[in-house]
Amino acid sequence: MQDRPKLTGMHRLLSAFVNSWKGFAGAWRSEAAFRQEVLLAVVLIPLGAYLGKTGIEKALLVGAVLVVLIVELLNTGIETVVDRIGLERHELSGLAKDVGSTAVLIAFLLLIVIWAGVLLG
Length: 121
Prior knowledge:
single chain
């Protein structure tokens, strides 16, 4: 097998963008939770930008929403790899999925803490 030449410059950036878009589209198609979180982000990101009084507050409110999306995408990646390996029940596969799900829960808790702290503090 021959190695493909490494992409550089604008070709690499374009390729990275296309791959990222494929990942977003794949998560959108396959994960109801991701779709729900994106729709929540569509509401919360502009709201956070509006409600934050300072640049730091705006960044915290918007950033907390983005963290939830990031963690959900990573969780989806974990679940996809585990399912690719095999669909039979295995203790380690279940643990990997549960840990990913817990990471999403913690990201949501972080979002709540930040929004409460900024808006009620």
